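Risk register update: the risk that structure generation would not scale has been downgraded. Supporting records follow, first protein first.
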Amino acid sequence: MLIKEISKTERPRERAEKLGIIALSDNELLAILLRTGAKNISAIEVGNEIIKTIDDISNLVDTTVTELTSVKEVGPAKALTIVAAIELGRRVNQAKTSVKVITPRSVYNHLKNDFVGIKQERFIAIFLDTKNNMISKKTIFIGSLNMSLVHPREVFKWAVKLSSASIILVHNHPSGDPTPSPQDVEVTKQIINAGEIVGIKVIEHIIIGSDSFISLNELGYFK
């Protein structure tokens, strides 16, 4: 269905004017940026195709022009418009507040709520710039932590993509006891070694328990 075939009051621009931009769905917001669709497909439907391609709207922050143009109906101009809008939003947000998560306590305070009610181990990488401001955080894996599942390439894929200067690793122990296991230590050392090869330093690994945390750096595993 084309936009012109949609009731005027239900079109994205008209809905935004009447209800405010916050009322629009993800694909409607993308439709406004896209402006037009393609042959026999509306901008809203193209927005849906973009979301399907990137799996989750949160991944849009790291999506490139090349990745967006892999969607059949999205050309370079439309892809660049979306990437520019995301970058502008990132800069506005960064100017508003720069989150520093350099100390173990600050990491714990920033991420502890991400693990509330989680029944499995969740492995997160925090990507920092040269001033130790958080660029982004990514869930690398959910499940039992071992090297066959948490591979350095998944961590450094994002580090390179985000132009990260350093990385902090964080995961939880659903048992509530943050004491590091031999697998925790093994994974940490292998990711540190991989970071030395590619020139991106891993500066910390925090294990979060039910109401406490442990720093593997403070325990001496980074020496």
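Supporting record for the second protein:
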Amino acid sequence: MSGPPETRPPLTPAQRDLVRLEVRGPIAVITNNRPEKHNAMSDEMDRRLFEVLAEVHAMPELRAIVWRGEGASFSSGRDTGQIGLRTEDISDLEFIERGHRPTQMFLTMPCPIVCALKGWVIGGAFERALLCDLRVATRDARMMLPEVVHGVIPDSGGVARLFQMAGHGLAADLALTGRVLGAEEAHAHGVVSRLVDSEEELDAVTMGMAETIAAAPAFTVKMARRTLFHLGVPEVQRSIADEALQQSMVFASDDYAERKAAAAEERAPRYRRR
């Protein structure tokens, strides 16, 4: 599905600074740069991230990517101040699928992405990190998929990736309860590959991993990632397609409307399971 044409104006210089790109020889460093909001993803920040992903996607000389965040957190997820502000005359399904198309660049990037996780890693930001190749976390990092608590579902492939990494038990626990997953537990389940003690060590270790990957024979790395891709990515892509339809159904459901009405009226919701 091609979706509606892009009609939004170009980002301003300040908006473009919300996600920074630095190329250090064969390594690109992508930085979430809204530290005063714990890198909560606004519409403008999302757009800039997708611009950066498209830019690095088209750099054949790159050998590795580091994705990190300024300030205390990698990203606290969606900017809640912008929830419900969409005014475009498009369907929920078109809106979700439009976001899914650039999100899948995480899966198709021509070189590995190493994520540096710290502080809060919530919702869609956690899902996107799960789509990357490797994750390193500080011991105080806290991860969540809180969508169901807010009446919606995770819809960016993160549940499928968690299912692959840790099995049904952890995936169901996080997706159905929205509880916090600490870094130590995440490491025990293989959700993160390595733990570090400080932000300084986090940057040093993730950059060191990127340098090691970049120094290896390029074709060998490509073939190793091809094996990993075929083992896991098709199932994640199928899940993303399913989630677009399921989230659209959630948005149109009586229960979702009841949740919003109950919150506005400060009363307990009366769900009808439809």
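The two ends are 27 Å apart (CA to CA). On this basis the risk owner (M.S.) recommends closing the item.
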